[in-house]
Design brief:
The complex is a heterodimer of chains A (about 350) and B (about 280). With about 350 residues, chain A is α+β, with helices and mostly antiparallel strands. Chain A has ten helices and 14 strands. With about 280 residues, chain B is α/β, with parallel strands linked by helices. Chain B contains seven helices and 15 strands. In chain B, helix 5 runs parallel beside helix 6. Classes of the chains: A alpha+beta (about 350), B alpha/beta (about 280).
Chain lengths: ~350, ~280
């Protein structure tokens, strides 16, 4: 909220535990990075002690809080052979705090909202978004897959966070209250915070070097569209496994399937050969190279043009997850530097 | 807001089943809730998502014209899971329908013009909506010519309507079947649609062409139309791509930056020339 005065405070780890308890008392659920074996992913927690902020990035993005991997759109119980439609009770969706998401994941919410609501509002998505409060944690560290700064983001960027915390060391967090939702999330918790007293987060932030010139990417993609050889070379390794889409915080392509009396919306991926296959056997994108091109075009050309938002935030998850080590950063660099 | 609005279908009662060919059938659908039915409007060219509960949804155009109220019709070939299930249903049973989606044939802009309809096989249904729409407003249009081809005589859909159009003095109907697809008593043409069109050589002056058919027919029909003098912006077609949502969200029907479900399904050949070959 630009209209708000910059509201920066300090909160300690013990006070944070009390804030968690307050949220639970208000009937919210808290999703935060939680360790499960060798994986750290967003899961329900009750105390800050359960939260694991050690990894640079969680394996899965927090998009499931808004767009679950599988969700019921409605059910159709059959009674005496008559079909009856039973709608979801959107009021029953639990208010949720997503805690510990990185600034890139917070920025991804705008891309998701653009996909679901660009033309008409998606009821389930919008209800979940309305009930969601984001408490981001700035990045003290990054790795070679991070490239948020190349896309206009940054390790301390506040976009999409209702509150952004920065670990200042010594068990203290700098808390920036960004939005009205953020203000509501700490209502009545004023005594848990101390004044920030001129403390500054900049020195605590990771340094993510800019890796390519974003302005070059969209025109280059458009110029390269028909350059088959380029796309074949770029996608030669791609297995079409879809892992990149599943871990991506902005990928939102979905399938609709019926199962057990329910109509379900499920994650899907443009990398799958079946994605566009017609019943007749005709496939408008029969080659993996065309599907890889679609992935980049959608995120870096179509979405900016149609929905005025980039479909990528530079979190690097797709590159970390890729079983054949395709690094999207290298592919974008190749696009930006290609001479078609 | 307590409804999952856009994905919740209307419940439709199957009022009539017409077997068009051994694997193509037409369903006439009426709104189970009459009030919903009265509030429902659509325009020719639009499509919808039809569902068999428990099997899923599939996408077809609305094959009836908006000038015939109180019902909608769809025509489909039994091919996959959902169409297979639709093919097993009988009159009186319930299916889901959501729509109408997509853009329309701009028939208001076509007034006082001649119209040339060219369809192949199972692509007559989307064109049947617009053909009946203009025939129901017949005095607003000049000459109406319909060229329709199928692989075999058995594969021609809407046979009783073809007979009706054949008899009308204000419609010129040319039917054709692929070589080898004729029966001993076949009186129509024998040959592929583009060749039959070439021979027919309809005038292009003040005429709009509407072309629907399999990709290979479209590919060879456009050059014939160009030779006959049809400008690309005077040729209309309706695209079909795999869809799930129908409303611009699920991410699979796009042709380049264009959503078939939102920007189409109706496009002019002039638009197609600017679009990548992703259909």
């Amino acid at each position: 909220m630009n209209s708000m005065e910059k509201d920066t405070r300090l909160i300690g780890r013990e006070a944070l535990a009390k804030l968690f308890a307050q949220w639970l008392g208000e009937g919210r659920r808290i999703l935060a990075p939680r360790r499960n074996g060798d994986k750290v992913d967003f899961a329900e927690v009750e105390t800050p002690g359960e939260v694991s902020l050690d990894p640079v990035q969680t394996g899965q993005s927090p998009k499931g809080a808004l767009f679950p991997r599988v969700e019921e759109l409605f059910s159709f119980p059959s009674r005496d052979g008559r079909v009856e439609l039973r709608e979801r009770d959107l009021a029953a969706l639990k208010p949720t705090v997503v805690f510990g998401l990185r600034p890139c994941d917070a920025a991804a919410l705008a891309a998701l909202a653009a996909i679901f609501n660009w033309d008409s509002a998606d009821a389930l998505f919008s209800a979940r978004l309305a009930a969601l409060t984001t408490v981001g944690v700035a990045c003290n560290r990054c790795d070679e897959y991070c490239f948020c700064t190349s896309l206009g983001g940054g390790p301390g960027a506040t976009t999409g966070s209702d509150i952004l915390l920065t670990d200042m060391g010594g068990g203290e967090y700098l808390a920036e209250v960004i939005s009205e939702k953020g203000r509501q999330a700490i209502q009545g918790a004023g005594t848990l915070f101390q004044p920030a007293l001129g403390k500054d987060k900049e020195s605590r932030l990771a340094r993510v070097e800019k890796a390519f010139d974003l302005d070059k990417v969209k025109p280059a993609l458009e110029a390269l569209f028909d350059d088959e050889a380029f796309w074949v070379e770029q996608s030669l390794r791609c297995l079409g496994c879809g892992a990149c889409a599943y871990v991506c915080p902005t990928c939102a392509c979905f399938d609709i399937q019926d199962e057990n009396g329910r109509r379900l919306r499920c994650w899907d991926s443009c990398g799958f050969g079946l994605f566009t296959l017609h019943t007749s056997g005709h496939n408008p994108r029969p080659l993996q190279s065309q599907r890889w091109r679609q992935r980049l075009m959608h995120k870096f050309a179509y979405m900016p043009e149609r929905q005025s938002v980039l479909g990528c935030v530079g979190c690097g998850r797709c590159s970390r997850a890729c079983p054949v080590d395709m690094n999207i950063l290298e592919h974008l660099r190749a696009v930006a530097e290609a001479k078609p | 807001m307590t409804t999952v609005d856009v994905f919740k279908p209307f419940l439709m009662r199957i009022d009539k089943v017409t077997e068009e060919t051994p694997d193509v059938r037409t369903l006439r659908l009426a709104f189970q809730d009459e009030q919903e039915g009265r509030g429902f409007t659509f325009r020719t060219g639009q499509f919808g998502e039809y569902s068999v509960f428990g099997e899923g949804e599939c996408t077809f155009c609305i094959a009836s014209p908006p000038t015939r109220q109180g019902y909608i019709e769809c025509t489909f070939r039994k091919a996959g899971r959902v169409t297979g299930a639709l093919a097993d249903l009988e009159a009186g049973e319930t299916i889901g329908f959501r729509g109408p989606y997509g853009n329309v044939f701009p028939i208001d802009e076509w007034e006082k013009k001649s119209l040339l309809f060219i369809a192949g096989g199972i692509a007559l249904p989307p064109m049947r909506s617009v053909i009946w729409n203009v025939l129901d407003l017949r005095d607003r249009y000049r000459d109406i010519t319909i060229v329709y081809g199928a692989r075999t005589v058995a594969d021609l859909v809407y046979k009783s309507e073809l007979a009706e159009w054949e008899k009308r003095p204000d419609v010129r109907l040319v039917t054709t079947v692929d070589p080898g697809g004729e029966t001993p008593d076949w009186k129509g043409e024998i040959g592929f649609v583009p060749a039959v069109l070439d021979k027919l050589a309809p005038a292009s002056r003040d005429t709009l062409a509407v072309v629907c058919g399999p990709p290979v027919m479209i590919k060879f029909t456009f050059p014939v139309l160009a030779r006959l003098g049809f400008a690309p912006e005077k040729i209309f077609t309706t695209l079909e791509n795999r869809m799930k949502c129908g409303v611009g969200k699920c991410g699979r029907c796009n042709v380049g930056k264009h959503f078939v479900c939102k920007d189409g399904p109706v496009f002019t050949f002039a638009q197609l020339k600017e679009m990548p070959q992703e259909y």
